[in-house]
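Re: the request from the purification team.
They wanted to know what the chain is likely to look like in 3D before they choose a buffer screen. I agreed to run a prediction and write the result into the notebook, where they can find it.
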Amino acid sequence: MTTATKPPHGPLTGVRVVELAGIGPGPFAAMLLADLGADVVRVDRPGGPGLGIDPALDITNRNKRSVVVDLKDPDGPARLLDLAARADVLIEGYRPGVAERLGIGPEPCRARNPRLVYGRMTGWGQHGPLAPRAGHDIGYIALTGALGMIGDPDRPPPAPANLLGDYAGGSLYLVVGVLAALHHARATGTGQVVDAAIVDGTAHLTAMIHGMLAAGHWRDRRGANLLDGSCPFYGTYETADGRHIAVGALEQRFYDEFLDRLGIADTAPPRDDPARWAELRGTIAARFRTRTRDAWAAVFADSDACVAPVLTLGEAPHHPHLAARATFTDHGGLTQPAPAPRFSATPTAVRTGPARPGADTEAVARDWDVPALDPSHPHRKARQ
């Protein structure tokens, strides 16, 4: 009789990651690695990160395990180095120099483990005039030119939550860098440091726009371009119930269907004359205000007009398309985005809920063979 083996949960099954607890893009990057199957051990500090959110509800800590290590304790750095010695990847999000002062920077970690990929997540990067300064998403994207592209030209640029900088320009670039460095380490036996700065990643995201700017197809100001909301057939409109519809009917054939479904094919001003765009926008806006958002969503539901209702976070999981794809999932009573992307041979899953600080210390000490991590270990008791 053969014993069935437990199927892998994602393509990174077997990869070990140490995450030094922080906030924002670092934890999200570690969550993505955990979603992909990595064994992520989050090293929490005593008392937690101080965000005020219940750890049981912090979705960015799903699929992880947690240990508590006081890095300011005399034995704290040694315990962290024991973990680093057995890891493939380490992620930290401190200001430049902090990890070094704690004795857990790249040099001591990679002295213990030359194959280690040491991922560093910051806003400004590891060097440059602003490197030691505090910052947040909105400041990072402001300097890259990305924020200046967004919004009505007659109003200040709006803050696009913290998705563009922290997570798109930060977390995702850290994950790409870590995976590339991990591939290199496995091929050569040598790890390296990955300097993932939000300013670098966000600037990189604007590559296509810089190309359009160089070609003369983008004006370097808000409200004057095809994709920045000034174009009447690429933007959002208010409906009769105060909600909104998003329109992206760029190509002519999609635009023709858009006008037909909207019921203004015979009255709409020409779209190819930017001088009449304000008039066209007014015509479209007036028409959208005659029905509710959901009524218009039904009109465009089976079309190629590229029109979609603007949903709230609470509504999104119930949209028929997202529900059919299980884009959102429920785990432990929490509705949350399911792991992405999808893999045919190594499917991913939400395996565990948010890790509670310190709840997995004994198991990690055993599984990673780091006995000194366990408070009940005789070595720890002797030194306390």
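For the purification team: The radius of gyration is 25 Å.
Please add any questions underneath this entry.
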